[in-house]
Write a structure and sequence with these properties.
With 68 residues, the protein is mainly alpha-helical. It has helices spanning 2-11, 38-58.
């Protein structure tokens, strides 16, 4: 779904990046050696969201956040 969103944005000339992160806390995604654990996911998600908010308020362009 993240690849589909990236393709749609590129096709429609949106200059945005799509970042996909494994949605598991069981560390069972091959070939990723270390997926996010529950606590790490919460910490990193909070940092990521803070960065998104900072970026969105520093720039007048619209940002899309899409959970896959």
């Amino acid at each position: 779904a993240a690849a589909d969103l990236a393709a749609f944005l590129k096709k429609n000339d949106y200059h945005l990046c799509v970042i996909g992160m494994p949605k598991t806390v069981d560390n069972d995604v091959f070939p990723i050696s270390q997926s996010l654990g529950a606590w790490t996911a919460a910490e990193q998600g909070a940092i990521f969201f803070e960065n998104v908010v900072n970026e969105a308020t520093a720039n007048p362009r619209m940002m899309i956040v899409h959970e896959v």
